[in-house]
Amino acid sequence: MNEAHIHLMLVHIPIVLMPLGFILLILKYWKSREYCKTALSIFIAATIFGTIAFLFGEGAEEIIEDYPGIVESLIESHEESAVVSLWLTVTTGIFSLGILLALNYGKKIPNIILLIILILSGLSTMNLAYTAQEGGKIRHPEAYTADQLTAMDKNN
């Protein structure tokens, strides 16, 4: 197993966890506080897995960048989006950890703070989806539009 395998295995975890936590945090408003704690824990897990996946991304790039059919600009686009995803996810995770600790010590968290986490997790979810789409373009031609494939064929 190499860094590319590890990157691909781990990168899918935050892509699933972040929207799951987002949905649970929304449910908190209609159901119970336990949804909130679960969502915050999920955001923390997404942050951990996302950070590890990001750290293996450079090694994955080194492995595949010379493969036939790999376009460097697609890797760069994915990498640039991944940096934004990392910062959004880490910010969400750090705030979530602080809120979860406060809740566990019996502190009451104002709804505005939870709304901020909800917004951050929504932004993280959207950016992770975009980053995944950009990453899929590296080796998955089905992720391209017909115009993009035609343009790539002309450049190769």
Question: Helical region count?
Answer: 5
Report the portion of residues in β strands: under 5%
Tell me about the largest β-sheet: none
Radius of gyration based on Cα positions = 18 Å
Quick overview:
This protein has 5 helices and no strands. The chain is an all-alpha fold and 156 residues long. Helix 1 runs antiparallel to helix 2, helix 2 packs antiparallel against helix 3 and helix 3 packs antiparallel against helix 4.
Name its key features.
156 residues; 5 helices; mainly alpha
What would you note in describing this structure?
The protein is mainly α. It has one domain (3-155). The chain contains 5 helices and no strands. Helix 1 (3-28) packs antiparallel against helix 4 (111-139), helix 2 (33-64) packs antiparallel against helix 3 and helix 3 (72-104) packs antiparallel against helix 4 (111-139). It is elongated, with a radius of gyration of 18 Å. The protein starts with a helix and ends with a helix.
